[in-house]
Amino acid sequence: MTRTPASRMDACDFPQLAALLLGRLRSERSRVHAITNSVAQAFTANMLLAAGGIPSLTVAPDEVPFFTRRSDALLVNLGTLDSERRKAILLGIATARDHGKPWVLDPVFVEASPSRLEFAQSCLSGEPCVLRCNASEFRALAGCDADLPALQAFAQSHRTVVALTGEIDWITDGARVVRVDNGHPLMAHVTAMGCAGTALIAAFSALHGNALEAAVAAVLVTGVAGEIAGAHSKGPGGFQPAFLDAVFNLDSEILTTHGRVS
């Protein structure tokens, strides 16, 4: 699998990039190995399938190196951090690094547990290409509020891209800062939405040589699909299938019409 080269994109170019990467994902069927929490596994897999990718989900430590090696990218999600997943995560990260595969970290609930925070810090030393987190998680990892200077400083010091998601999404590699204003309030009422979006970041990172641009494209796809699903849903129960349908049907015209990137 080839990765499109790094570039310097303007904000208006991101909807086209998102459409391009979706098209490549659909045609090349990129594989993402997702070490994720038990609650998020099904929705994460369905998100990748709806977008065109292929998921694998084993957390067995004796299998993870082999599944990571045959995948194009790795997702590490700390949601249900049992002893088996701890071993699997470290093996997956080591394998991804040894084989030059991009990997993405989702440090779920690191603010809730000192041991989880310590483990997340050790994962960060493995240099994920993207850290996808919310404001509370970032505050725990960085020891400060999630303002733009702090996001940039953290990205620079850890040689990663920080994708801070929330009502407004901010993505930075320490130098560039991109804002995405897409999304819908119902996204906060469906479990595993962030986990699934992070899997798409991993898939796009396997296809594009600039981690910031891949992350922006994936966040944009997730946000636009969320808006479309929210407009056709009466509540959380109908939102999840509507979201998967929206991802499946996204194209360049829809992304260009709905995308709000600056």
What this model shows, in words?
The protein has 262 residues and is of the alpha/beta class. It has one domain: 3-Layer(aba) Sandwich (UDP-N-acetylmuramoyl-L-alanine:D-glutamate ligase). 51% of the residues lie in helices and 13% in strands. It is built from 11 helices and 8 strands. It has helices at residues 14-28, 41-51, 64-70, 83-98, 114-124, 135-142, 148-158, 193-205, 211-231, 236-249, 252-258; strands at residues 31-35, 54-56, 73-77, 103-106, 130-133, 161-164, 169-172, 177-180. An 8-stranded mixed sheet has the order 2-1-3-4-5-6-7-8, sandwiched between helices. β4, α5 (114-124) and β5 form a beta-alpha-beta unit. α3 (64-70) packs parallel to α4 and α8 (193-205) crosses α9. The radius of gyration is 17 Å and the shape is globular. The model has no long low-confidence stretch (mean pLDDT 95).
Shape: globular
CATH class: Alpha Beta
Summarize the main sheet: 8 strands, mixed
Q: On the 0-100 scale, what is the average pLDDT?
A: 95
Query: How are the strands ordered across the major sheet?
Result: 2-1-3-4-5-6-7-8
| Count of beta strands | 8
The structural class is alpha/beta
Distance between the termini: 30 Å
CATH architecture: 3-Layer(aba) Sandwich
Strand content: 5-15%
* Overall domain count: 1
Q: What is the count of DSSP helices, taking H or I runs of 4+ residues?
A: 11
User: What proportion of the residues is helical, as a percent range?
Assistant: 40-55%
The CATH homologous superfamily is called Ribokinase
Low-confidence parts: none
- CATH topology (level 3) name: UDP-N-acetylmuramoyl-L-alanine:D-glutamate ligase
Cα-atom Rg, whole angstroms? 17 Å
> What is the H/E string?
HEHEHEHEHEHHEEEHHHH
